[in-house]
Amino acid sequence: MTDGASPDETDEQRSRAEPSSTEPDAADGSEPADDESLDATDGDSQEPDVPADVRKYDRFKKIDGGTYDRANEFLRERTYVTAREWAIARLCADFRTETGVEMTKIGENLPELVPFMTDTYTPQAVNQARASFEEKVRKAGATFLYGAMCDFFTAEELDDVMYEATEVAKFLLEVEGVELSVEEELETEDQISEVMRDVREHSAALRHDEVSCPECGHDIDVGEET
Question: What is the mean pLDDT of residues 85-107?
Answer without folding.
Answer: 95
